[in-house]
Design brief:
Length: 147
């Protein structure tokens, strides 16, 4: 084996090491972004459950969403279903989320399922309903919500 071949082998080995390191660093960075996105969405549900917090607190955490334009599905029974747009319009109080499951669908989309209990201002009885919320994020900021 000549010196040139050893030099080429060493150069190729260095290139492989650099490529492996780049893949590991990129993977770690993407995973870190997913964790930041998930934490951001988890914080929303914590804010909603805290007494005294309301729609203005959620608007502050989601400046990328125009909540006046967000609507629920047409088939939602607004009297017996706790929809997020109704929460944002302050129609429900004393929110309590249970069985929350946060799934990272893609690196920029978090799906949240669970149950929520609340009561309307004019009622004493609590209503409990299941929900499925999809949150889209860009650069660590929530930009879209689907129910």
């Amino acid at each position: 084996m000549s010196l040139n071949e050893n030099g080429e082998e060493m150069g190729n080995f260095r290139i492989y090491i650099v490529l492996i390191l780049l893949v590991l660093i990129t993977t770690s960075a993407l995973k870190a972004q997913e964790n930041v996105n998930r934490e951001m969405v988890e914080r929303l549900y914590q804010v909603l459950q805290t007494r005294g917090n309301g729609p203005n607190d959620i608007v502050a955490l989601t400046p990328g969403i125009n909540w006046k334009e967000v609507e629920s599905s047409a088939d939602v029974d607004h009297r017996n279903t706790i929809s997020f747009p109704a929460v944002m319009k302050n129609r429900w109080r004393s929110l309590e989320f249970r069985d929350l499951d946060f799934k990272e669908v893609t690196e920029n989309e978090i799906l949240v399922t669970g149950t929520v209990s609340a009561r309307q201002h004019s009622e004493c009885e609590f209503i409990t309903s299941k929900f499925r919320h999809s949150w889209s994020l860009r650069d660590g900021e929530i930009v879209q919500f689907l129910e």
